[in-house]
Amino acid sequence: MWEAAQRVAGAVAAARHARALHPRGRTFEATVRTRGGGRYGVELLDRAAQYPALVRLSRGAGLPGTWPDVLGVAVRVRGGGGPGADLDVLTSTTAGGAPLARHVPLPRRRLASTYTTIAGYGTRHGRRYLAVLPDPAADDLGTDLDALTAAAARGRVSFLFAVAAPAGRWRVFGRIVVGPPVAPEVDRVLAFDPVRHGAPGLRTDGLLWRLRAAAYRGSRDGRLTG
């Protein structure tokens, strides 16, 4: 199963000369500010702090324009995996934030949507899910990355970072403030991978994580050979 997932992802990436999934997107400089107060044994959730970050907003199937697509927000928290180690969090639009809906990917048009990790992390308190949620204090993000880029230049783009138990409500633990875009050539070579870039106390274990890890490897290899 794992080899098949890796081969398929590699073939798609090679054919596209881009990522197998979420090929169309834009990466921004960002800042993650956390509130602290958790008891997970995970610094990002437990301690009030500020981290430099990268945030990539993307379209899962790469459909054109503002067509509905499974949208994604990928966050790389510099130092979020411990001193000198990055933490990658990958989220996609789902049917909603409710316990069952958060596991169902759903195409969306609007960038201010509910994005969840879909796969849960193992923690000292059991399974937990992360989410990137709309920030009521931010500007209307619309459906277009160009408009979002202009809003980011005005300092008006942000999201909320949240955590939840499988049947629990989201608890906001931080804010993601989006800044200017990085150069296109930087975006092209970035490879977000929450399995390789994790954090102590957030375990990426289970069938879905193993399948995703194989797909990430295939996509990286395909981009190099395509």
UniProtKB/TrEMBL annotation:
Q: Which InterPro entries does UniProt cross-reference here?
A: Catalase_sf (IPR020835)
* Superkingdom of the source species: Bacteria
Q: This chain belongs to which protein, by name?
A: Phosphodiesterase
